């Protein structure tokens, strides 16, 4: 969201989001706050990418530890790798 939306209280942001969803559902595209919808989608995509990268790093770290430090294997490592 633009700075003016970021500075709003959380309930206001929720109301804004719900309003945008409602407008999309009924096809009132000309009423959308399009610039900020795009910004919000871009932010969400970046957050999702960051989350995937973080999870992959964690998985790779645990797999490497499991493979190359067998003497230090902890029971929870296998469950972390599988989750």
Largest sheet: none
The number of domains is 1
Q: What Rg is obtained from the alpha carbons, in whole angstroms?
A: 21 Å
Total DSSP helices: 4
Q: Tell me, what's the shape?
A: rod-shaped
For the termini, the CA-CA separation is: 33 Å
The proportion of residues in beta strands is under 5%
- The helix/strand series, from N terminus to C terminus, equals HHHH
Q: How many strand units?
A: 0
What does this structure look like?
There is one protein chain. This protein has 83 residues and is mostly helical. It is 76% helix and 0% strand. It has one domain (3-82). The protein has helices spanning 3-6, 10-25, 34-68, 75-82. The longest helix has 35 residues, at 34-68. InterPro entries: DUF29. It holds the Pfam family DUF29. It comes from Duganella flavida. This is DUF29 family protein.
Q: Top keywords for this entry?
A:
83 residues, mainly alpha, 4 helices
Secondary structure: elements and pairs:
Elements: H1 3-6, H2 10-25, H3 34-68, H4 75-82
Helix pairs in contact: 3-4
Give a brief outline of the structure:
About 75% of the residues lie in helices and about 0% in strands.
């Amino acid at each position: 969201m633009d700075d003016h939306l970021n500075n709003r209280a959380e309930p206001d942001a929720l109301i804004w989001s719900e309003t945008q969803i409602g407008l999309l559902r009924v096809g009132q595209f000309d009423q959308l706050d399009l610039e900020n919808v795009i910004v919000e989608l871009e932010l969400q995509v970046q957050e999702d990418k960051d989350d995937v990268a973080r999870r992959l790093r964690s998985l790779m770290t645990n797999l490497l530890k499991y493979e190359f430090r067998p003497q230090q294997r902890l029971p929870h490592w296998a469950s972390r790798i599988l989750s």
